[in-house]
Write a structure and sequence with these properties.
The chain is mainly α and 273 residues long. It has one domain. The protein is built from eleven helices and no strands.
Length: 273
């Protein structure tokens, strides 16, 4: 039997949690020296997307249809995750409550480690999450178990946030790795879409029982097509952002080099005199 996670009480509690997260971020945002209105809007939009994805109507649709479930997952991966990352909650909140000395040291070491390891770990985490949840019994188990359902969605958000944090990182170091990470996600997501689209039988037993073999297979193919569209929705912006970041870093380096040459050219005649 399909369990639709449509409890108004549970959804209300989740919305309250989102409101609390918004309030905490807002307090920190107000106190930082350089406030970005865009970041506040991104944080708000990300939390709204999370709340919408868990709305009873969406949950009921996801419980009854592979396509509905795919829409729910795309809301988490394509909408909520990038907005939450662009808001930079860790640095915003840390700047408000962490001691200055420990904050700079800890964040510097963490950022340095993530710049090196992120381009490899983030796409691996993202693709592993997609493949494990779609091609094992986890997807089916999530339809009948609230805890599995919530952990599955938490994994999607965490994996997508990790991926977006890598791609939107600044600096020349790791630029090639970030672009490579995007291509890895493009290839891996496309392959999963092919598997779902070409499967001769339904991969989710619960949908097969509830909808019938033919209807479940049609629903699965519609979900796979949606994954293709959703995959393009996330990978194209990722690719554009990663290449733009790389180009911007190279441009800054070129400008500094040109400035240094100009300064040297001005100083040299003075030294000769």
């Amino acid at each position: 039997m399909i369990v639709a996670h449509t409890s108004p009480v549970a959804h209300g509690a989740f919305v309250l949690g989102c409101c609390f997260a918004l309030a905490v971020y807002g307090v920190a945002w107000v106190t930082v020296s350089r406030r970005s209105t865009l970041r506040m809007w991104c944080w708000t939009g990300g939390l709204v997307a999370l709340a919408v994805s868990t709305a009873p109507t969406i949950e009921e649709w996801a419980a009854e249809s592979f396509t509905g479930h795919m829409v729910q997952h795309l809301l988490l991966i394509v909408v909520a995750a990038p907005l939450l990352v662009l808001a930079r909650p860790v640095s915003t909140v840390a700047s408000r409550w962490s001691p200055a000395g420990s904050r700079s040291t800890t964040r510097r070491h963490a950022a340095s480690w993530w710049r090196r390891a992120g381009p490899l770990l983030a796409p691996a985490f993202f693709l592993t999450t997609l493949y494990v949840t779609h091609l094992t019994g986890i997807y089916d188990a999530a339809l009948g178990n609230q805890l599995v359902h919530d952990v599955e969605h938490l994994a999607y958000v965490a994996a997508a946030c990790a991926l977006w944090s890598v791609v939107t990182a600044s600096g020349r170091a790791g630029s090639a790795g970030r672009v490579g990470a995007v291509f890895a996600v493009i290839g891996g997501s496309a392959l999963l879409g092919v598997v779902l689209l070409s499967a001769p039988t339904p991969l989710i037993p619960t949908y097969a029982r509830e909808l019938g073999i033919e209807a479940a297979l049609d629903d699965q193919r519609a979900a796979a097509s949606l994954m293709w569209v959703g995959g393009m929705a996330i990978t194209l912006p990722l690719l554009i952002v990663s290449v733009w970041r790389w180009a911007a870093a190279e441009e800054r380096i070129a400008e500094r080099a040109e400035s240094a040459r100009s300064d040297h050219a001005l100083v040299e005649p003075r030294n000769r005199k």
